[in-house]
Amino acid sequence: MDFACTSMDAVFLLYATVAWRLALGAFSTGRARAAVWTGLALFAASMASFSALVVGLAVSVYGIACWGRLRAKALRQLAVVAASFAAGGALVYAVTGFSLRECFAVARFQNVALMTRVIGRDPAALYGRIAFGNIAAFAIGAGLGLVPALALRLGTSGSKLDPWAAATAAVLAVMTFGGFYTMETERIWLYALPWIALVAVSARPFECGALRVLLVAGWVQSLAMEVLLFTLW
Question: pTM of this prediction?
Answer without folding.
Answer: 0.82
